[in-house]
Amino acid sequence: MNHDRYDDSYIRGILNTVKTIAMVGVSANTSRPSYFAFKYLLERGYRMIPVNPGLAGQELLGQKAYATLGDIPEPVDMVDIFRASQYAVAIVEQALALSPRPQVIWMQLGIRNDEAAKLAEANGVKVVMNRCPKIEYGRLS
Questions:
Q1: Residue 47: burial class (beta carbons within 10 Å; 0-12, 13-18, 19+)
Q2: What is the mean pLDDT of the chain?
Q3: What is the pTM of this model?
Q4: How high is the pLDDT of residue 45?
Q5: Residue 61 and residue 102: Cα distance in Å, rounded?
Q6: How far is 105 from 11, CA to CA, in rounded Å?
Q7: Among 27, 99, 111, 136, which is most exposed with the fewest C-beta within 10 angstroms?
Q8: pLDDT tier at 14 (50, 70, 90 boundaries)?
């Protein structure tokens, strides 16, 4: 897939299909973009799961936080990566180890890792890179 441009129908299809989103790298700092995106998507009805070792066992906006994707005790539809590009392959590997696997790997604005995308897509997982689901949701809704 060409990750330089996405059809609106592709993005809309993802946002209309996923229900549970694990956000890797979310911050409890209310001035961080990851906090705003997490809160926005939570308020739009998505089941949001915070993934951050520093928050593990605590709650963020009423949602229990986990240290890793593997610690989440329920299925996840989408993994939203809010970490630097160099961590994307390891996060995709963790996501692919989940059962069932997530349907989507979404890398936030400024995050692109073609190796991680190829790995996910080779395993039947859709990929979005360098986009924010909060922005895309607002733009398309």
A1: middle
A2: 97
A3: 0.97
A4: 98
A5: 23
A6: 12
A7: 99
A8: very high
